[in-house]
Structures are given as C-alpha cells and as structure tokens.
Design brief:
Oligomer: single chain
Order of helices and strands: HHHEEHEHHH
CATH superfamily of the largest domain: DnaA, N-terminal domain
Strand order of the largest sheet: 1-2-3
CATH architecture of the largest domain: 2-Layer Sandwich
CATH topology of the largest domain: GMP Synthetase, Chain A, domain 3
Low-confidence stretches: none
CATH class of the largest domain: Alpha Beta
Strand content: 5-15%
Largest sheet: 3 strands, mixed
Number of strands: 3
Structural class: alpha+beta
Length: about 150
C-alpha cells in the first residue's frame, strides 16, 4: 500500500498570496492587541474579536452585558487606532459573539414534546360542552388540533 504525504500549504498556495494572507492575519492580530490594550483589564478579556473594513470597526463581546460596556469605549478605541496608524474608522459597532460559536460540541438535543394524553383531550371536550359558546368553541378547536398532532 502506497502512502502519500499531504502537500504543504506553501506548495498549494503561491508564496505571494500566502504572504498577503499572513500579513493580513498579523495586522488583525495587532489591531485586536491594540484594542485590548486600550480597554481596562476585565473588559479587555471580554472583547473576543474584531473586524475592520469599509471605515467600520466591529467588536465582538462575550455577552450583552459586556457589549454595553464596550460601546462606551468605542470613541476612545477609534481615536487610539487612528493615532497609532492602524486605521481610520468613522463608525464602530459592538456585537455579541454567541457562545454557540465557540462551543466545540454540538448543541444539546431538544426535549421531547409533552403532548396531552387522550384522557386529557376527552376532559377538554367535556369542558367544552359545559362552557359558554365562545370558550366552548375555542376548546373544541384545541381538541381537534391536539388530535391531529402526530405523536
């Protein structure tokens, strides 16, 4: 059996293109580092990532509570980035990066439906017979729907 070695990334992608990608990654890393240095320690840890483009800076926070605090620091961050030559942004946004994106495992399964048993549906139909016309009609429609639901 002949085993082949996987190709190196540098063999698959031209050096010029790979160099440009690596440069963009390093610029992004430096941008995020500068942003985090501008923020106070507890908040810097909660700023998870950033995206810069089209004169807009988007910061991603851990939760909604940290998002509100990051918005407060946006003007200072934009000013710091401009003075350090890392970009001039006319607008800043802060969004929440949902924990589901960071989770390494799949979402937990949905709980099974808790459909009423036939005795409950029969009790609702009996109540519909003794109720006034509007409530009774609503209960009968509910019973019809519950009977059609696949189990």
């Amino acid at each position: 059996m002949n085993e082949t070695q996987p190709s190196r990334v540098s063999e698959l992608i031209p050096k010029k293109v790979l160099g440009a990608c690596l440069e963009r990654i390093e610029n992004h890393r430096n941008l995020l580092k500068t942003i985090k240095q501008t923020l106070p320690p507890p908040l810097a840890d909660r700023c998870l990532d950033c995206v810069a483009g089209n004169d807009i800076l988007v910061l991603y926070a851990e939760s909604g509570a940290w998002t509100a605090q990051l918005r407060f620091y946006l003007p200072k961050i934009i000013e710091t980035l401009a003075s350090s030559g890392q970009g001039r942004f006319r607008q800043g946004k802060v969004k929440t990066l949902h924990m589901a994106l960071e989770a390494s495992c799949a979402a937990p399964p949905r709980p099974a439906h808790n459909w009423p048993v036939p005795q409950t549906i029969a009790a609702l139909e009996a109540a519909a017979q003794t109720s006034d016309s509007e409530i009774g009609a609503a209960l009968l429609r509910l019973c019809g729907t519950l009977r059609r639901v696949p189990r």
